[in-house]
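Example with several molecule types.
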Amino acid sequence: MSPASIARARPLLGTRVDIRLSGMDGAAANSAVDAAFSAIADIHRLMSFHDSDSDVSRLNRDAFAAPVTVDARTFAVLRRAREISEASNGAFDICTARKLVAWGFLPAPEAAAPDPAATWRDIVLAAGNSVRFAKPLWIDLGGIAKGYAVDTALEAMKLSPDVQCIINAGGDLRVSGPAPEQIALRVPLAAGDIPAIEIIDGSLASSSGHEHARVREGQTVGPHVDGVSGASTSTTRFVSVTAEDCCVADALTKVVMAAGAGAEAVLRRFGAVAYMYDAGVWTVLGEESEG
Amino acid sequence: MRSRLLLIPAAVCISGPALGGAFYLNIEQAQQLLFPKATFEEAFHILTDPEIKAIQTDAEVSVTDRKVRMWKVSTGDTFYLDQVIGLNSDVTYAIGISAKGVVTGIEILECWEHYDQVRLPAWRAQFTGKKRGTVLDDGGIEKISGTTLSSVHITEGVQRILATHAVLAAGAKP
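Resulting structure tokens for the full complex:
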């Protein structure tokens, strides 16, 4: 019997999550995909900025007043976010939700107003998945949790290495298995050749601000904030990052959106590669490993 | 992990409708995924004007199609097939609703996105680029960056179907 191939999709994480599997029989493949969707739904529930019962909303509401115990998965994302903030000297910062709310990209949470001076350094992580904020602040995991959801989905499927799988959460995706996949990039403003990334056994995430650029207080702003300057990142730049983990690829797109070529060292540290399109030119940052 | 950038000459790509998307499941497959081993009895319904009005009031979403594609499931639940047509995408999806009116599951059957995308021959091309998702109920993690599928349409569709389910259930009472 030839190995079956299935493709399924569900609306999750505010997007369409698409999972394709080949090299596994139908019933086993379907239950693996069920496990993946259920893992993603858990991350959605825990880390949504909009849902008032999520860990993120509980933190924004209560963590300045007293420590809040969160799910181990939320804690893992917060730890990873801290690592990337540290490595990027704050270019990646989950505390920039304040700006995204001010610019109308996120709704205001039901929580005390944040301190404009608060940064990722004011998030105190302690044993027992306990989190406390040293200043009133709002976090948003929109720049990292989608990638993390993809990672947990792959883990939940417990695939054997010969099974080919691709999990795509609205452009943040992970490829696993023996074969390379070619993924076309939808780059705003690019004309002519069609850019694509060929990837084997790794993750790809992309960011661009173009579609959602808007004018606020006389300035064009996009949905990504440079954690260092507090300003919007370029709304003409497009960035794709490949890395082992989708969580890292997702977060590093924001670092490259903010720092451009200045992100080289951070990319190398995480074994990641960035493909940046700006003003009609492609730049490759980080080290593409030899195949 | 290995990756490399490819620039494919546009001429290599098939011309024609600029669509990205996929066919995932047929109706029977979706039925078996949402309600394994159950049997299904087609119970399509044409909405009356008062029913449409009640649904629109309840869901705050407009009803554009009178025909409700529903199946009674042997488990006592109901299986609905629905379509949402958005600016950026057309989505056909199935939704399972329990006797108590709770969503038991959603599966997308087909999704086509209208953009300046191209269909690449012999490729399993996934179109990256993030997606805007202003979900009405509990929101998406990533409301902010996005380009392709607008999940708001599916959320509105689910609200409309839940309201339809409630209105039809109320009407069926003696």
